[in-house]
Records
---
Amino acid sequence: MAVVYTLLVLFLAVFVAGFILLVMGAINFDFSNSEIPPGVNQPVKLRIIHIILICRAVVGKILENIGICSQVSFLRYMQDKKTLGVDTKLFIKDLWFEKVPVRIYQPKVPSASQRRGVVFFHGGGWILGSLETHEKLCRSIARESESVVVSVGYRLAPEHKYPAAYEDCLNATIHFMKDSEHYSVDPARIIVCGDSAGGNLAAAVSQTLAGRSDLPKLRAQILIYPGLQALDFNLPSYHQNRGVPLLFRERAAFYVLQYLNGDASNLEEVLEGSHIPIDITLNYRKWVSPDNIPEEFKVRGYKPQVLLDCPTEVNETVKRFCEPNLCPLLAEDAIVHQLPESFILTCEYDVLRDDGLLYKKRLEDNGVRVTWYHLEDGFHGIIHSFNSDWFSFSSGKRGLDNII
């Protein structure tokens, strides 16, 4: 019995030591490939959050390797486990719009007229995120703007590939627009809003609804550091911020491939730019080009990328990258000029910064009124963590105040 006990203790010791070494190795590897520039808001706090996220990812991978659950399932579980109590200022109810789960936040304070409506799409790279992860943010928007907020729990990749998320968001939005007066919302004052991947979905939904004559015109779109294209992962912001948490350049490409195909088998080709034929790339250069980025955003360094030829078999797997419902930056002018008033928030230390800047230019070139707010000390994901107790960032609160 003593021998068995001793062996068990030794096994546990080896397991714990191996686990610690694995976590430390992952942290060291991630550190060597990451950078937090001195201009980032509260860099020490960001580094700590980054370490926590690395540890979660490592634990998830261990659980996946021993057959307990997938890494994605574990990460989703860790994100969703926090629950908030009753809000004294809001009525909160879970419903279904066209088989899509939604959560509605309605201010309790009486209103003399119909309210504004905000349809919100959460971020998370189309893989993570949920109604729960953006609960605090949606509550704040509803309370501070005295709006009815509808948070959409769209289907996630890789289980549900493109266009599942887009279709869920579109169907939920149309349902709300048709039934808005039931929630005391003015049908002429409905806004679509989203952060990161949610910003992508908001832009795509806004474009689809722009030509609809059977529905009220959207009042506005709010795009919070949106990802809007997958043609060029070598724009200045992708080079300058490629290793800045919380979104690395490689991870941005990984997410969009997971959304499109359910796997990332063409990651290297996408990163080097050999996933799209040169003639198609040149055709879209009028919209997706470093030449359209203001010079002040290139001072931290930028090296133009040489165009590479695209193997036919690679293009076949990612050719839908040219669809505006996946990459809204590629929509034709005839659609863009019909878009509603827009608010775009970008962060200096974010790989997706230039997607927002390019879309801002496209909208303005087509006569769409744009309010642009740039967080010079911000990083990707900063709005989402604006009021997460110790993990909050003053810059994130500043960004949210401007959104409100």
---
Amino acid sequence: IKMAGDSRSPDVDTDGSEKNEETEIVVNVGGVRQVFYGDNLNQYPETRLAELINCLSGGYDSIFSLCDDYDPGKREFYFDRDPDAFKCIIDVYYFGEIHMKKGICPICFKNEMEFWKVDLKFLDDCCKTHLSEKKEELEEIARRVQLILDDLGADASESRWKRCQKYIWKFLEKPESSYPARVIAVLSFLFILISSVVMCVGTIPDLQVVDAEGNRMEHPTLDSIETACIGWFTMEYVLRLISSPNKFHFALSFMNIVDVLAILPFYVSLTLTHLGAKLMELSNVQQAVQALRIMRIARIFKLARHSSGLQTLTYALKRSFKELGLLLMYLAVGIFVFSALGYTMEQSHPETLFKSIPQSFWWAIITMTTVGYGDIYPKTTLGKLNAAISFLCGVIAIALPIHPIINNFVRYYNKQRVLETAAKHELELMELNSAEGKAASSKSELEDLARGGKEGPFYSSRLKVSHSDTFIHLLSEEKHYRTRLQSCK
């Protein structure tokens, strides 16, 4: 086998009588030999295999720019690439499209296609879906790693107020960042539970007190606890708003809107109680206050901020709109059909409870959902038969879309766990690589120092590299970072 430095031309026909269409080349990819003919390869002349046909007349420099090794005796080209991916890629020359085999990493397969200079448009749509999903996963891992690195690092050029903002934001939004942050998260969770319990206990008549006008109101002790909880929620929201890096996005976030709805009724009720009596009748003020106090149930949704399970459930329901729509459509059709049948069949009974079809909707709803309150029920034989068929159809209609919804929940939950583990693994690997790099650098600098090539103070300053700066430096090296991420399977 001739080496790449040899500038002599390989053995080819000097008269040029051999046509490209009749050329036969042998390609060895990872120990797997494949024979190709020019008429197949020239269908896509911009691919690497098609370029191999025309590179023989360009010398060994041209050949070794396309392959890893070449045997002129066998006219065999050697490539140190993935043979399984190559078997899929060559389908483009025979079928005009490419399918990925199961078990091949989509990102690695994309890199193989780029190496063989095959356009991604030949990849079938089903495989492009896997590729886009993998890209999203890697982008999510990179985003999580970058967030962790941003928390670890501190920019010395930033002002003191900016650094304070970042510290408060991390303290309130990221409980895993420190032990005090976890304590604050637990306290916030407890305040949510206490306020919810106080709201429920305050409605017990035995714990209520009667004011001067004879109206029942919550116990003053419960009011004090409620005030303390609202004070905590207000302080927490204001601090998070002040320290937020993007206040517009913060204000429009769903969970932050829930926080406002949990806090606002207290202050509106307080304002109406003290000022509203001068502007309107006392009874109207009390009705408005009572309506606003009902809005306190919104604070229970604040638990989603501290519960990954509730967040996963919300995402699963969001991704299952199609299945939920099918469920509602099935139920709507069944409710209309069985309520109309029930009304028609029950008209012959003198004591019928089905007064109209709209009134029968309620009976159809509680029957198809297998609740069955019993306030409306059929009395004729045909009506009872219709009821039996309706709740059987209701069970089937509810059971059919449930499985995809559960799958969405399990898939997203497992995906979040995998992404979290992958992000931690990336950080560990970067830390290991940075430690190895510093060890090698220290060894070479010690050797130079022993020869007197460097001064002591300058050498010691070179070794003072912060932990966070090392991480950010490694993450900014796109080639190293992408190579690690693209090896994920």
---
Amino acid sequence: TKMAGDSMFLDVETDGSEKSEEMEIVVNVGGVRQVFYGDNLNQYPETRLAELINCLSGGYDSIFSLCDDYDPGKREFYFDRDPDAFKCIIDVYYFGEIHMKKGICPICFKNEMEFWKVDLKFLDDCCKTHLSEKKEELEEIARRVQLILDDLGVDASESRWKRCQKCIWKFLEKPESSYPARVIAVLSFLFILISSVVMCVGTIPDLQVVDAEGNRMEHPTLDSIETACIGWFTMEYVLRLISSPNKLHFAFSFMNIVDVLAILPFYVSLTLTHLGAKLMELSNVQQAVQALRIMRIARIFKLARHSSGLQTLTYALKRSFKELGLLLMYLAVGIFVFSALGYTMEQGHPETLFKSIPQSFWWAIITMTTVGYGDIYPKTTLGKLNAAISFLCGVIAIALPIHPIINNFVRYYNKQRVLETAAKHELELMELNSAEGKATGSKSELEDLSREGKEGPFYSSRLKVSHSDTFIHLLSEDKHYRTRLQSCK
């Protein structure tokens, strides 16, 4: 039977009168039939569809290396792939570029393009943006999963100091790792609040004391509380620096620079108070100490380390530089125009408060931003009309960029929650797969598996990668292709 089939196959496929450019093939992808001609497919000979034309003379082995099934009578090739993605990919043969439809996962679409051997350069730039965003999300999920696995894994070959260093780092940097770590995080947060409150309360004249020279200074009790807070901050920073796996990156991190700026003024002012008097005049020392005390406001930024909301706000502002730049440009143009008009219109009044255009800038700023101190105001009818117009223009200019900035904040906040949930989902599936057929798995079992050794990126050969809807290629050396039966969330 096989020989008869082969002979029929060869009779049909080896007709010498038919040229490859004029050949017609039928491709069935997931139940959707498409007819192609050789002249279209040969434009890109390295693609899988173009190879189908040249594989007909190679027998069944050559054909089935390219497709899932083949009907020689109908000359129809069968593929168990995503038909929606395939409809987008075949546009390259007709238009020379590819666009993804909405609702298709970019990573799955990339895998489909790799299966059909179509280069990514044919993907339109707008679709490449979605693909890069999805890659960044998967990289972030992989990084979070790897960090959790690193915390679970303990390498027996490491020295006791290395293990102790990792424990200290996890204890201070990852409050979610244990209950004592959460207690330390809460204490650090309370010390920041107490230090900030003491700094503010110390400026109240009724709570200050007078020294021997008649100068006012902070109450000794408040000074002792601040010293205790600085001691806590110093100990925390030193321990984090010692236990840091990358000390250079730690030292130049923005939040760690803020920590140094919050601690350093205390020690510099203490040094100037005890040693500076011998090198310079006492008045100069006191001025330097006062200037350094102002730098203590930097410690309020330490709250960003313990507040995800502040971190999200910072990221949203970074992503909104374009909108903020437009806002500043609108306000700058409006300030210049309305201040010049206000100065010109108010020159006819004998008691005008607009002495010059630069002085009018201040009036335009407080008017357009709806502050309105009232220290400078127009007195003529035209000046008041100009002030009303500037006020309305300021409200519009400020309101326009607010919506994109809020969108950036909400998008980043929701994205962080989704990534956190996806990372936990991957860990749960990895734990279930590592049970080797068991229906459930526990966290303790995952910890035991992770301690068996570091044979792979998961520290254990038994800890298998997950094949979930958010499959992460970065966590596996093997390459997996999705079929149309698998979806991606």
---
Amino acid sequence: MQFLCKEYQDGNPRVRTLVTETRIHLVPSLNPDGYELAREAGSELGNWALGHWTEEGYDLFENFPDLASALWAAEERKLVPHKFPNHHIPIPEHYLAEEATVAVETRAIMAWMDKNPFVLGANLQGGEKLVSYPFDTARPVSEMPAAAPRSPDDYEDDNPELQETPDHAIFRWLAISYASAHLTMTETFRGGCHTQDMTNAMGIVQGAKWHPRAGSINDFSYLHTNCLELSIYLGCDKFPHESELQQEWENNKESLLTFMEQVHRGIKGLVTDQQGEPIANATIIVGGINHNIKTASGGDYWRILNPGEYRVSARAEGYNPSVKTCTVLYDIGATQCNFVLSRSNWKRIREIMAMNGNRPIRRIVPSRPMTPRERLRLQMRL
């Protein structure tokens, strides 16, 4: 925060562009009670582990709704996407109940994420030096679909990625953008911080392959909002001493800037009707990626994508869909891709059907006189 403010005031063009063209939200601590407890105890003899839990005893990183398991169960029953969405999955009712075992911090973060149309996010942690991306939840064997054949020279390992997100390639790009700009994150020739290197010397790893857990903020963010969120482990020491903070900052400074700039990669635009009025909650569908997003209250949307050509469509209730081809370039700067939707007759048809109790409307034969009951029904309908 100090760096962004100082460099902005000093006229740094890169920071000025980032600040003026990006809505940046910074949360100094997701668990202030736990941090205070760990700070008072000191970092020696592993006392930093006290800061992993809230005052009420919750592990915030595993306290969010497990929407991934719900999605996979629906896929098993062939319900996706016609009866069960592949995006913006609602929070289960039992999770929202007052007596549910949910931390106040978790409820606050979920409300905050629902209020703001976030596009890219990261939660910063310590104790390791890598970037972890979704899915964090390990998919049960019985729910795994048949894996597609892979070429022998594939850059992944021999085991197929059975819990990849539809945006797997994009998540890898985002993770690499941070790890490659870090001063030491990809120097894994000595192994990991505490065990062997789990990143294949790249500094990135899929959460479910490294440390499987259900109910992570990363999986929740991906399946409930438009936001792509990753976990960034800044360094091996979970509670570094004050004398080490300057070097830790230098190690991560360029990575933080580069990662934030990735929010401007992909496509963006407005979805409006023929009168120019914005359409909120319109669905943006990218061909080949089985994960959709929705427009914000002002009809605007952002979709992070890797460079390439995409067939993109916009759909909204009561409107005819619109399809166009959008090209994403390698340079930073999202491609403008706007949609204008025309109203559909189906909206009026549904209104008429609803007036009739969603029952088929009986056709009146002109040659036969109407009964008093039929005449009354027709008058009420009109």
